[in-house]
Amino acid sequence: MATEGFLSFPPLVTWQTGQDMEEWFQLVIVCYPLSAMNDTKSLKLVREISPEERILILDVFRKQRLGVSALVASNQLPLFRILLSKLMVLSVGYCWTEFTEEDWEFFFSNLRSWIQSAVVIMEEVTENVNDLITNSSTSENFHVLKNLEKIVLIPDPYPITFATYVILSTAPISQLAILEEDATCSLDGETSGDRNSGDLELSSERNIHLKEELSLMIEKLPDEAFEVDLISQERVNVFLAWSLLLSHLWSLSSSSSAREQLVQYVQDSANSLILDCLFQHIPLELCLAHNLKKKDLELPADISEAASAVKTAITTGSLLFSIETLWPIEPKKMTSLAGALFGLMLRILPAYVRGWFTDLRDRTTSSLIESFTRTWCSPPLIVNELSQIKKANFADENFSVSVSKSANEVVATYMKDETGMDLVIRLPPSYPLRPVDVECMRSLGISEVKQRKWLMSMMLFVRNQNGALAEAIQTWKSNFDKEFEGVEECPICYSVIHTTNHSLPRLACRTCKHKFHSACLYKWFSTSHKSSCPLCQSPF
Question: Where is the RING-type domain (predicted)?
Answer without folding.
Answer: 490-537
